[in-house]
Design brief:
single chain; alpha/beta; two-stranded antiparallel sheet; 12 helices; 59% helix; elongated
Length: 314
Amino acid sequence: MLKTPFGTYNGDSWEEHCQTLLKMKYENDGYQEMTAHTHGDLGIEGFTRTGIIFQCYCPDDEYDSSKLYNHQRDKVSADLQKLKKYQKQLLKFFQGVKVKKWIFLTPKVTNKELIAHCHKKAIEFRNDETLNDLLDGSFDVLVHDELFYGREIIKAKQILNEKISIDVPVPDQEEVINWKKCQTSSIGILDKKIGKLFDHLEEHDKRKKTNTYIDYQVRNYIKGQEILTHMQQTYSSAYEKQVKIKSSIATHLEAEVLLTELTPKELLKDTLEKYKNALVGEKFHDIFEFSVYNDLCHEAIASWLIDCPLDFGG
C-alpha cells in the first residue's frame, strides 16, 4: 500500500480512484473509460475525444524515493510501448483524432527525474514515424500526481458523504530540535510568553513545563504548516477562507490583548474557541475530518504565539 496525505492505495484502489476523478474532470471532453473486461484495456485506462489518454500506476508497497522512481520510470516506458503494440486497435477508438497527450497518473512523485524521463520519451515517440497515424505532432508525455485533481477529490468526497483527511505525521523530536536551532528568536519569544502561563509554579517546575509546552507548540506549528501547504495546493478555496479568518482574528488580537482582563490561560482558551467557531461558521467541520480541523486550530495558536499577536499580560 502507498500512503499519501489524502489516502492509502494499492493498484486496484488507485485505479478506481482515478476513474472517478477523470470522469469528473474530463466529462466535457468526452472522457471514456477503457474497461479491461473484454480483450484487455489496450494499455490505457481511458481517453478523451480531444486526444488525451491516461495510464494509472500505484505500487502495492511503500518504496523509498529511488526505488519508487525506478518502478515509475519502468512503468512509463513499458506502457508507452503498448501504443505501438495496440496501434491498430486504438485507431478504431480515436476515429481520426490524434493523441496529443499521454498522462501517467500516480499518487505521488518524489523524484524529478521522472519528469525528465517523460520528456525524453515524448521526443522519442514524436520522432517515431511508425506512429504518425496515431500521435499528433505535438505529442507529449506528462506525469500527474494527486494534487492535479484537488477539486475533483473534494466533489467525490461530498458525493460519497465522506470528509477529507490530510494525513501528516507528527514531527519527531529531531524535527522539533532542528526547527528550534534555526528559529532562535522565535524560541525566545515563545519562552517569554509561555512562561507567563506557569508563573504560579516554583522556578524548577515552571522551567520544565515551559520547555515542554514550547516543544508542543513547535510540533503544532510544523505539522499545521504542512497541512496548510497541502490545502493550498489541493483545496485552494478552503485554504483562502482559512487565511482570511486567521488574518482577521490576528488583526484585532493585539488590541484585545492590551485590554483583556482574562488570565493567560483564559485568554489562550478564549482565542482558540474564537478560531474554532470561525472555522465552524465556514463549514470546515463538514468538509474535513476532525483531525484536520483540530490541527488547524492548534497551528493557529502556535502561529500567533510565534508571530507576536497573541501575548499575555498586555
